[in-house]
Design a protein that fits this description.
By secondary structure, the protein is mainly alpha-helical. The chain is built from five helices and no strands.
Length: 127
């Protein structure tokens, strides 16, 4: 069972590294998604990319997993309230927005589940 959990944890982390790299490669695309009240434009996108890559590395290496997954859940929550919900209200491509909203909700849930598996000492809790 431990191998399955480790494999799942790594599979969960890999897309975040790719999302982070994508923030560097497609900065203009992501800037276009930002709502007007998010400050610093491209700098926010770059910072988000760095945070996504750092979180992925943390989860894969099992260093500061609890902290990084809690911060990831918080960041996903911010995406939901600052990007997805305003896009739903404004009517911008509703079907794609709903899919992105549901994706981020499920990723936030997965992040919280992984966080719950770790104590501050980064030892998986066996229940």
């Amino acid at each position: 069972m431990k191998n399955i959990t480790s494999f799942g944890r790594i599979l969960f982390a890999i897309p975040f590294a790719l999302f982070g790299i994508n923030h560097f490669l497609m900065t203009d695309y992501y800037v276009g998604m930002l709502t007007s009240f998010i400050p610093f434009g491209a700098y926010t996108i770059i910072l988000t990319g760095i945070m996504l890559i750092a979180t992925s590395i943390s989860i894969i290496t099992k260093k500061f997993v609890k902290l990084s997954t809690l911060l990831l859940a918080g960041m996903l929550f911010l995406f939901i309230i600052t990007i997805h919900i305003p896009h739903l209200i404004s009517g911008i491509d509703k079907s794609a927005t709903i899919i992105a909203l549901l994706k981020d909700i499920s990723l936030m849930g997965g992040s919280l589940m992984i966080s719950g598996m770790y104590t501050e000492e980064e030892i998986p809790v066996n229940k």
